[in-house]
Specification:
779 residues; mainly alpha; 6-stranded parallel β-sheet; 33 helices; 6% strand
Length: 779
């Protein structure tokens, strides 16, 4: 929302007007119904499910659960939830309502029940893409205008329809598509049996209801005061993450499809995401919305890297378009706002030679000292583990291409990318790309219209090339490799160094880069001063800021790598406390991913348990509230200290609650615990109840009751009293009753909301249970 408002101010400046009313309205005169709505894709679909005519996709319970799950971004809380319930992805969950099938859960199904012993080269990512983007996500899969008796949940392409897709849509051959479809049918059946749905099911339900609405129906909904309608304009960001069927819904519900503004990151459409092309979006409008295609505005200026880096990246993009044009939009290369040094090919014959070139002759330590904004990028995790000792680089400063996505650095050393590439000698096909192909590329109206000029091409070197036979399927692996190469290069803001130890495998691309005059080549015989050496000297503030940057980016595939780098940066900055906190978090993430079911031997189990205790201690020593729940989770997994774990859960919830109300003066007392805080009171209550079954002491029963009411679990608290295990005499009853009475001293306590509800008789079952307990002890 802030970005949207800033965009308005920037546009007002752009058109050089001093009249705020010309662009930005007077918000004080605008009603809530007239103000823009800011929604995520999930929120948009959920809201539509509620307000559209027809059978709703979600039950009220499922919708509430989905909203709460989305708000709960804490993976630790989700881990605790899974651990306490002990539920696996392939267990029946229909009694609790359906759950959404994410790629992570699909991956579990793939490993256990879907993969089998297939001879094809299909992997889980390709199959998921084909299901999400084509079988269930294409506009053809919705079957608008026919087969209206078909269940909205069963709308997907038939095998014949899937096989009939053009090569510009699904890039798999017929045999591979048949394999995918066989897996899809098995997946779809299994998904329903175990009580799951996927996004395609939801989208198809909504699309079927939308398709039956006329413009008059939509206007009628607006007239009835239904929220979301009318939709005058839609602004969609990250559009490359939307399937065709989702875009169909957006266009159908916008009062005027011409008032749709779709923005996507072209670099992301090249490197990852849903199988998306902007040309497909234009085709949807042409076929379904009046036979006109929307304008396509191409943003060509890159604000991160300079022209030297971008010229090299552009040469890689050209190869993708030339050999795999059906899978990409034809977009012009990025332009830099300023010039910069060419990337450097380091012509070396050994790792030792490379180390000397990087660090110069003044090497004082056994390792190359990297700066705060420098990194080594390698092809894969296997390549990372295989780095020789003589390489001399701290392994924490080495990232895979996958880990580096979304990050940026001043200097990037791309090491052995071609030597470790599974494409091996398939790279030789780049010699097919000639000067005539380049002329054709830059003569294309899309590219020429951007104002980009042809990059230099040294004609004399063309005599070294020869034509090889190209086959899309045989060379398909190069499509992925070129995307990875593009991603690695564009991580750099200033300098790119490329070094290879296998000259045969790297020669085709090195020759290509030299022919394009987009690199400098340096060897040991040349001047080392021309290489901008690693080991930059950064300030303490630089190291500290970079540490915070890595902490912020520590998520997904790169989580552990970023945490290690963050710890190193804080160490360089002399911030011991922040370093220890980061190391504690790293230890937790590493233990979190251990599959305990594989620890079958007693010795392995004991070693794992010892590690859990060590990490718990390390997390507690950080003295950070944010680590308290992580420490409690580790202790929970030992299965030996449920009472202490419960107290840690309660303490975490109390401290989080206290911190929140102390920092926000606008809150009116009593303050209700948040959903997140309630979860931890719930965990504590459940564990206290478990221990109480074996211990039976009044103290634990009171602890259980206190946490239940703090979590808003009034019925569970009533059941605890009615069980006869809580109150046995008048003294115990008075202790219990004091937890129910509001007072000035308890206004800042998590139980304050319950006390107020008790006073106002809003928890009837619990009040009746307390009355019965009073009678039973003669009070």
């Amino acid at each position: 929302q802030r970005s949207f408002n800033n965009m308005g101010r920037a546009w007002r400046k752009r058109i050089e007007t001093n009249d705020p009313g010309a662009i930005e309205p007077d918000w004080s005169t605008i009603t809530d119904a007239e103000k823009p709505e800011f929604l995520t894709s999930s929120e948009w679909l959920e809201a539509l499910d509620v307000v559209l005519p027809g059978e709703e996709f979600f039950t009220q319970f499922e919708l509430k659960k989905r909203v709460e799950t989305r708000k709960e971004k804490d993976s630790v809380t989700k881990g605790i939830e899974d651990y306490l319930t002990g539920r696996e992805v392939d267990e029946i969950v229909s009694s609790e309502g359906r759950e959404e099938m994410s790629f992570h859960k699909f991956l579990k199904l793939w490993k256990r029940k879907l993969r089998g012993s297939r001879r094809s080269c299909l992997n889980e990512a390709i199959v998921w893409r084909e299901i999400k983007s084509f079988i269930k996500g294409s506009i053809a899969s919705i079957h608008i205008g026919n087969n209206e008796d078909r269940s909205a949940q069963d709308r997907y392409l038939s095998l014949d329809e899937y096989l009939a897709l053009g090569k510009k849509e699904s890039r798999l051959d017929e045999t591979q598509r048949r394999d995918v479809y066989e897996i899809f049918e098995k997946y779809d059946k299994l998904k329903k049996e175990i009580g799951f749905y996927d996004e395609g099911d939801l989208v198809h339900n909504i699309a079927s209801r939308v398709s039956r609405l006329s413009r008059a129906d939509i206007d009628a909904l607006a007239g009835q005061g239904v929220s979301l309608f009318p939709v005058d304009s839609l602004f969609v960001d990250e559009v490359q993450d939307f399937t065709q069927s989702e875009l169909y819904i957006l266009a159908m519900l916008c009062r005027d499809p011409n008032n749709l503004f779709l923005a996507g990151d072209t670099a992301q459409s090249i490197s990852q995401g849903v199988d998306f092309r902007f040309t497909d979006v234009r085709q949807i409008f042409f076929e379904h919305f009046g036979g006109t295609k929307p304008d396509l505005l191409q943003l060509t200026h890159n604000y991160r890297s300079h022209a030297g880096v971008l010229r090299l990246a552009a040469c890689v993009v050209e190869l993708m378009y030339h050999f795999f044009g059906n899978s990409l939009d034809r977009l012009p290369p990025d332009l830099g706002l300023f010039n910069g040094p060419k990337p450097v090919i380091m012509d070396v014959t050994s790792t030792e030679e490379l180390v000397l070139m990087l660090d110069g002759s003044k090497r004082e330590t056994s390792r190359i000292e990297f700066g705060a904004h420098q990194v080594v990028i390698v092809r894969s995790e296997e390549a990372k583990k295989a780095l020789p000792d003589e390489f001399g680089v701290d392994p924490d400063w080495v990232m895979t291409v996958q880990e580096s996505k979304g990050l940026e650095f001043d200097d990037v050393l791309l090491y052995n990318f071609f030597s470790d590439s599974p494409a091996e000698d398939l790279w030789r096909i780049v010699s097919n790309y000639t000067e005539d192909d380049i002329k054709a590329y830059y003569a294309d109206a899309t590219v020429a219209g951007s104002g980009v000029q042809k990059y230099d091409w040294e004609s004399p070197l063309l005599t070294d090339t020869r034509h090889l036979d190209f086959d899309v399927n045989s060379h398909k692996i190069l499509e992925v490799e070129l995307k990875m190469l593009y991603t690695a290069i564009t991580r750099a803001r200033v300098n790119v160094f490329i070094a290879e130890t296998d000259s045969e495998l790297s020669r085709p691309m090195f020759n290509y880069f030299r022919r394009r005059a987009v690199v400098d080549v340096v060897n040991r015989e040349g001047s080392l001063s021309s290489v901008r050496v690693f080991g930059a000297k950064d300030t303490i503030e630089d190291w500290k800021n970079r540490g915070e940057y890595y902490l912020e980016k520590a998520e997904g595939d790169r989580q552990n790598s970023c945490l290690r780098l963050a710890a190193k940066c804080f160490d360089k900055a002399g911030d011991t406390k922040r370093m220890n906190q980061t190391l504690a978090y790293l230890s937790f993430t590493e233990i979190e991913n251990v599959d305990e079911k594989k620890l079958t031997k007693t010795k392995q189990q004991l070693q794992f348990k010892e590690k859990l205790y060590n990490i718990t201690e390390q997390l507690l020593e950080a003295r950070d509230v944010g680590f308290l729940n992580k420490a409690a989770f580790c202790l929970l997994k030992t299965e030996e200290n449920d009472e202490y774990t419960a107290r840690m859960f309660e303490l975490y919830a109390k401290l989080t609650y206290a911190k929140r109300i102390s920092e926000d003066d606008s809150l009116m007392l009593p303050v209700m615990p948040t959903a997140h805080e309630k979860k931890y009171f719930q965990y504590a209550g459940q564990l206290f109840a478990k221990v109480h079954k074996y211990d039976g002491t009044f103290r634990l029963a009171v602890d259980c009751f206190r946490n239940y009411v703090s979590a808003g679990m009034y019925d569970e608290a009533a059941d605890l009293i009615n069980s006869g295990n809580l109150v046995h005499n008048n003294k115990e009853f008075q202790r219990l009753y004091q937890l129910c009475i509001p007072s000035a001293d308890t206004m800042h306590d998590p139980t304050a909301t319950f006390r107020k509800d008790f006073q106002r008789k809003k928890c009837v079952k619990l009040i009746e249970a307390i009355k019965s307990a009073a009678i039973s002890v003669g009070n």
